[in-house]
Amino acid sequence: MNKFPTWKYLLILIVAAMGFIYALPNIYPPDPAIQISGTSAIYTPDEPLLKSVTKTLDELEIDYFGEELGEKSLLVRLAEVDDQMRARREIEEALGENHVVAVNLAPTTPDWLRAIGARSMNLGLDLAGGVHFLLEVDTQKVIEDTVASLELQLKREIRKNNLRGVLVRSGGNSLRITAKTSELRDSVLDIIREEMTELDVENSQEESLFIINATLTEQFIREKEDYAVNQNLTTLRNRVNEIGVAEPLVQRQGRNRIVVQLPGIQDSSRAKAILGKTANLQFRLEAETNTPVSRKERFEFRDEQEQRYFGGAELERNVLVYGKSVVNAQATFDPENSEPQVSITLDGDGASRMNRGTRDNIGRRMGVLFIEFKPKKIVTVDAEGNELVKIEQVADEKIISLATIRSALGKNFVITGLDSPEESSELALLLRSGALAAPMTYVEERTIGPSLGAENIALGVKSVQLGLALVLLFMLVYYRVFGFAANLALAFNLVLIVAVMSGIGATLTLPGIAGIVLTVGMAVDANVLIFSRIREELKNGVPNQTAIKAGFDRAFVTILDANLTTLIVAVILFAIGSGPVKGFAVTLSVGILTSMFTAILGTRAIINIIYGGRQVNKLWI
Questions:
Q1: Cys-Cys crosslink for 544: which of 166, 231, 348, 616, Cβ 3.0 to 4.6 Å?
Q2: How far, in Å, CA of 10 to CA of 20, rounded?
Q3: DSSP class of 287
Q4: Which residues in the chain land under pLDDT 70?
Q5: Contact, 522 vs 612, CB < 8 A?
Q6: Where exactly does CATH 1.20.1640.10 map onto the chain?
């Protein structure tokens, strides 16, 4: 009685070995580091960059080691965490605006552990530090674009109805329409009331002119602003998810601001570069020779044959399709010449607009205008001589493709004219994650160093150690040999929690550490139920081996019910919670599942080894 078959012992040994191996990376603390990459996807770091960075660190008398010159970034490890922020500021100043300098945590996990997929746990912003952005959405730009679109729409309707003697001008959030006769004014009013319900109109007269002031309604403005902020919010979340940031925080704050927190990750510079870009596409027809100056714009364009920049090309101001109509974008290669390209898929409205715009213009050229808002640092000096640093978004507009329309386009087509596979991949990522509805400016940018997180980690570990020590002492004193078995299973449980969380890529936060402490108590609680049942059986005169078997078997249902109800609550917390609540729920859920294995199967295996299959005169319980 009370003997496991060999396969059960082997199963427990295999799980224990896997647990120790996959928990092992957490004993190797990462090194503080500085990571430098380019703002462009085609940027490649080189030896002069490395020399410039090391020279700056030498001048600052900052100790460094382990320089790693990769394909897309340069990583330099530092001896002290406290030197990270100072090094970042000085290197950023020395290299200029074409580089992204970010603090990082460089892993020190041995190669053999990495080869089998073992990695340390991700740490939240409160433990590992990270980057905090506060961005402000330029909702006024959305309103101005909306008014400009309404202006073009109204002009088209005026031309369509042949209303000569009507002039339309936009300004702020309103349109000013002047008509030479009252009949013309009334006709325009009919168009506005039928086609543009988002406008409030007021009539006036100045000398011989009849004036209409059409202003966007307050409700429409608020809806448009909410749409812009929510669209940017969704886009930022998609971008963060695509670049693999662990447990990010992206949420709205106030009327038009968004908070982005990126906990310490292994590629923070790329995340910073992607978030700092506001990229969009516009598809426009090339302007013809006789197109009025007021209806065309000139943009930079590179001739693919000459491989050099020349005078640029002129496009019509009217936009056929905006980038927000892109529902999918994939980086591919042209099968004929193996050049990088991006395959585009439009939504229903975009496909319809593209078809209408191209079917009547076969033979003309259509340009793909790439608009990217890059952060630019502007330094000014106030009256007291203090430097004031402001980050503004500067538009970089260029034509990346100018091709002849051979047939009417629809839902699917490709964009060519890209410099490299990296550029096509980055453009596809920005388009696939969604277009930003409005430009954003950085109101606040803070890098939280890991020194504060180290203090939190130390306090959290101390709380786990103290709680564990008290539980171990109680179990050993009160339950003796059985308590010793429970303590071994409890230590095994902690190792499994760390291994599972590391394996699934979960993020440990301060609330997560609280979940571990709670799990310690819950794991022991299962053993207390089992041992109490064994004591009851012994008091009733049941033989020792039978009492052990009855204790484990009959307490199982109670333990399962208790843990199942707690697991349901943890799942609900994870589903409806956010941030710290999710961190607590993840740790608690993992702890419940591992404790069921260790408290029942693990503890019984140890007891079976000690007492099973032989005559036992007395149980030390």
A1: 616
A2: 15
A3: P
A4: 39-42, 97, 239, 241-247, 264-279, 302-311, 373-377, 389-393, 417-419, 422-423, 426-427, 429-435, 447-454, 578-579
A5: no
A6: 6-25+449-611
